[in-house]
Give the backbone structure.
Amino acid sequence: MSVLTSRIPLSRTAAKREKPRSWSALIFLAPFGILFLFLWAVPVVRGFYLSLTDVNVAEGTGGFVGLANYANLFGDGDFRAALGHTVLFVVLNVPVLVAAGLILALVLNRDLSGRNMLRAAFVGPYLLPGAAVALIWTLVLDPVDGSLNTVLKAVGLPAQQWLTEPGQAMGAVVLLTLWWRVGFPLLILLAALQDIPKQLYESARIDGASRWQQFRYVTLPGIAPVLGLVVLLRLIDSFKVFEQVYLLTQGGPSGSTRVVLQMLYETGFRDFRTGYAAAIGWLLALIILAVTIVHQVVSRRSVKS
């Protein structure tokens, strides 16, 4: 009984000590909370409200219109075309980028001479700003003196009009993005490969597993969660494509590479239709959210199966 009574004051004292700790934690979190409120929460709410208006910044006019902007978007041929170009870029870019990153990670995970230099060569472009990348690839894809057409001519193939042909311009954007962004999946997947215990490969070789079987039954399960994350991040990043398209093709030729964010930029900063531009941004955000949810559901089902 004496032991129990002696513990009661200690527990009360401990409870009293926890209160200053909780207050100190709130004090440390307060700067972040204030920044989050004013730099993220308030702009998001403000942006959603703007999407419900027809405000024109240049004229200083406009008022509340409800969901009219969203209804108009579904009937807007320009928006449907821009969304189609964005989806086409996603479909072309994500599989190529993830597959290239995985292949390079598998190759550079081996004990090769000059391995670190090769890693730096593939990761280096990822650190370049978009303006520099666009300038480099404008020179590479030049129809007269571009290095890519020079190579094609050297092997007896005709030169291509990469940036002026509607059927080739999107491919040029995908090629630029592959060179520019492949460093990210390469780094992430390389780290995942290095986390797989080598004993698993040794056991598989002892059991007579071929290289393909080792990849299928050891490597893929080992990197599956990270691979799913890389796919998700590339999906989100690809839906937000803008910089390389705008700098390389300006949405041309004939609007064949005009994507949703370029339309948003032109609507908001050229035409000053702020409300309509906000609606474009929110609809794109909802599409990305839907794609993310579908990806998560599919990933969880594949893990369970």
Observations:
- The two ends are 55 Å apart (CA to CA).
- The chain has 13 helices and no strands.
- Confidence is low (pLDDT under 50) at residues 1-8.
- The first helix runs from residue 2 to 50.
